[in-house]
């Protein structure tokens, strides 16, 4: 059975329709990368999947169960976790404390602090530093580690490489590639870097003005088709 399915999802901010009729399916170990220009609706879509944005029509199914009506914390318990845009860490707390907060509401599963540190070894030397003192790449690693500690089946990663140095992006994607190779978790990744998205994704979804412009395996499209879709050129 499909692990995660979204059917005809529409999301509104008041009178504005930010996402219109998006559908996706995803299985364990698969990666969907969402690309699209600023304002295309990517963050709204991710927040709707996490249950943070609630003004939606359509259906969200996890393991065949309709979870559309569930609040964010209930979805986390069912196995959906998000690393949000801007990371949203507690900057006065240490890395360890930021990570362990996630364990409080976690469903049972294989992730614990040692496993997060194996996946993101760059966090080991800074585990007792305040999160406010970290670099962008380190913050991103903490945010993803925190999401993993809730033992997700579906991991939502918004703006993975935004604001990170090339070396930091490399480090984060090295860890994400290892996660993907394990094959247990499905990932939905919003990625500004087109090359990175094409490289990492099993499926890409290009959004423009809230709609699907293009959706499928990266090698099913020419570079020109993808860039035209990115800029909403028909
Ligand atoms: P970015 O890359 O700039 O984050 P995005 O693709 O993630 O863009 P969204 O942030 O989802 O796009 O925004 C989609 C549309 O919804 C935009 O027109 C934006 O102005 C609008 N929007 C986003 N958040 C709100 C909000 N809280 N209230 C009203 N309108 C909003």
Automatic annotation (TrEMBL):
Gene3D superfamilies: P-loop containing nucleotide triphosphate hydrolases (3.40.50.300). GO terms for molecular function: ATP binding. It comes from the Bacteria. Keywords: Amino-acid transport, ATP-binding, Nucleotide-binding, Transport. PROSITE patterns: ABC_TRANSPORTER_1 (PS00211), ABC_TRANSPORTER_2 (PS50893). Residues 4-234 form the ABC transporter domain. Belongs to the ABC transporter superfamily. PANTHER family: HIGH-AFFINITY BRANCHED-CHAIN AMINO ACID TRANSPORT ATP-BINDING PROTEIN, HIGH-AFFINITY BRANCHED-CHAIN AMINO ACID TRANSPORT ATP-BINDING PROTEIN LIVF. This is ABC transporter ATP-binding protein. It comes from Litorisediminicola beolgyonensis. The lineage of its organism: Bacteria, Pseudomonadati, Pseudomonadota, Alphaproteobacteria, Rhodobacterales.
